[in-house]
Amino acid sequence: MVLKAFFPTCCTLADSGLLVGRWIPEQSSAVVLxxxxxxxxxxQVKELLAQVQQASQVGLVVLGTWxxxxxxxxxxxxxxxxxxxxxxxxxxxxxxxxxxxxxFWSCKATHQQSSTIPGVPIEDHVMLIFYDQRKVLLSYLHxxxxxxxxxxxxxxxxxxxxxxxxxxxxRSEALFCKNQFDEDxxxxxxxxxxxxxxxxxxxxxKKASGPVCLLVACLxxxxxxxxxxxxxKLWPLPFIASKFSTCEQLRHRFEHLTLVFxxxxxxxxxxxxxxxxxxxxxxxxxxxxxTLLSWLHSSNRIGQLADALIPMADHVAExxxxxxxxxMGAPAGxxxxxxxxxxxxxxxxxxxxxxxxxxxxxSPFIERILWHVGLSACLGLTVALSILSDILALxxxxxxxFYVYGARLYCLKIYGLSSLWRLFRGKKWNVLRxxxxxxxxxxxxxxxxxxxxxxxxxxxxxxxxxxxxFTLLRLLVVTVQGLIHLxxxxxxxxxxxxxxxxxxxxxxxxxxxxxxxxxxxxxRPLRLMMQINPLPYSNVVHTYRLPTCGCHPKHSWGSxxxxxxxxxxxxxxxxxxxxxx
Amino acid sequence: MEEERSFSDICGGRLALQLRYYSPFxxxxxxxxxxxxxxxxxxxxxxxxxxxxxxxxxxxNSMILSAAIFVTLLGLLGYLHFxxxxxETLLIIDSLGxxxxxxxxxxxxxxxxxxxxxxxxxxxxxxxxxxxxIYYLCILLKDPLEPHKISxxxxxxxxxxxxxxxxxxxxxxxxxxxxHKKATSTDP
Lengths: 581, 188
Description:
The complex is a heterodimer. Chain A is α/β, with parallel strands linked by helices. Chain A has 18 helices and 14 strands. In chain A, strands 1, 2, 3, 4, 5, 6, 7, 8, 9, 10, 13 and 14 form a twelve-stranded mixed sheet that branches. Chain A has a two-stranded antiparallel sheet with strand order 11-12. In chain A, strand 5 and strand 6 form a beta hairpin. In chain A, helix 8 runs antiparallel to helix 13 and helix 14 runs antiparallel to helix 15. The longest helix of chain A is centred in the last third of the chain and has 51 residues. The radius of gyration of chain A is 38 Å and the shape is elongated. The C terminus of chain A is likely disordered. Chain B folds into two domains: 138 residues; 45 residues, no CATH class. Chain B has a six-stranded antiparallel sheet. In chain B, strands 7-8-9 form a three-stranded antiparallel sheet, with helices on one face. Chain B is elongated and about 75 Å long. Chain B starts with a strand and ends with a helix. The relative contact order of chain B is 0.16. Classes of the chains: A alpha/beta, B alpha+beta. Chains A and B meet through strand 13 and strand 14 of A and strand 6 of B. Chain B: Keywords: Glycosyltransferase, Membrane, Transferase, Transmembrane, Transmembrane helix. Chain B: Pathway: Glycolipid biosynthesis; glycosylphosphatidylinositol-anchor biosynthesis.
């Protein structure tokens, strides 16, 4: 195989010296991590390598020599460098050379031991691949190849292909901590040899995060202890809490807060990204919520909203009354059964009358309630939207009741009809065996059954029409609630930190690498430039999406239509821990 | 060493194939697609503007005309940035892998790199597309768990769609490089 030498771009201008790095025999690649400059004592170099190897679990060796001719090529240096091959024995021994002013490099890789003629080494073809050390160090390769857990004292890290290169560089941080300002006997050249790179803000934030996390974690544990007390488990409260999406959203955000401010360190880059995404999502949520709050409380918007709410509820009730009057007449030209029509119409009209009286009773308190509810927007825009969705559900409660009445009536009718239809044909539903069996009925049973069947079938259009109208209204309300929930889910789950990172520092999220062939001359070794191929935006969102509340529709379209036809009640969202009706 | 030849694609448009031999184990093939035809561009623009003018005479709202201009500009920019591929490149490096690059008319480049360890072979496949039988070059990838099975087929030069004669040139060159890999491979 062709020998691949990965050379960092920061070392191209370094003085002559020894190449230090890792040799991967399976891929025949030499990853150069640093250059050790003259003068050095071989024992000290070996000690340094052993020290770094112990700290980083990466097998570091001296790979060869690097020769950077600034003036005329020096013959003595050449012989000296070749002599070093005997001190640090490594197969194959790499010799890289670059003359200042020339664009092309010369490389040699020699095998001393495996040559057939003693004294004459075999030379291999060499391919030079330049890489940006800092970017490769900071980047995270997706999808992560499964690395064996190296805490069990594994000296070598094994990984496939290019992941091995990324792994080698990222593990050798111990080597990159030694810079020229240390009082070390060995002088190294790598990306941080000019001095450690750090940002004051980041360091301050790291120092401050310890006590802040501890404080917030204590507060959160107090809150969770208070909410776990027995008072909240008394019967009506858990039921009501499960019906309101606000409680679900608050619980979800509370979980996020506990995770972000937990005192445990993140276990891996994926966990770290998740924490960062949650934090940014929380901050954005609170910022948008505060904006909404300031907009609501300015120029008496709350008062205007409260003033508009009662007439709006009145208007809805009036429209419903008109609808019922229309149904009680001859809706769309259909002829209804007058008696049943009147009964159902009056029943629903009385409900609306009750509802209107209730709303008018509440009207003096509406502004106060809205003002206090508006304050909850400081907890986040998602909480405000969930409250809006719950208010909508409360205000349209009468539509929900009508839907339930209509559906139950229709359902009973359909079941009655199907059972009596079986009676017509002389069959019966066997509950024990869960199948249809034949049955011989008495004459009077058949007579009563036929009568009932006829009555039910003639009353079917009236009930069906009421059911259809109220189901459509209910579906409309459910659609509006669904849109609000969709928006809340979007704010909850969008990984904004990852998207920002992909925009500003694309090398941090790597999908792979790309190579560019640098200027080439026949007879010279091939030179390639390795750059990081960033992850596409769709993959970023897909990989780093935060889990949502889990409120998604549980029915497929087919089962939904089937339920609608048979009059079974539809519960559109699957809430966590909801019992099936 | 660089060489340029001209071929044609499956629809009859002219293609140019540039072969670059950097070394016995590194080669690059660059297929450049036919340019954006001025006739098509003029035709589409005229249709959109005539339709807008027709709507304008019905509605007497001048916003329609400015909207049409806006739509045409945005559509052209979007087409150049997301749809129109100028050239497709295949770079094969022995013992590293194969890299496929598509460069769009706006300058955007989309690169995919496949490591040599995952590549089983490069073949020319035959496919029936509507009423045509077309040939395409594809890379066969092997499953890491079962090295004898093919896990994925990655087609190359999908936008350029060169004909068989061009594909044979590229195939022969790639096989020369891969032969070396197969000779030194440890697979039985």
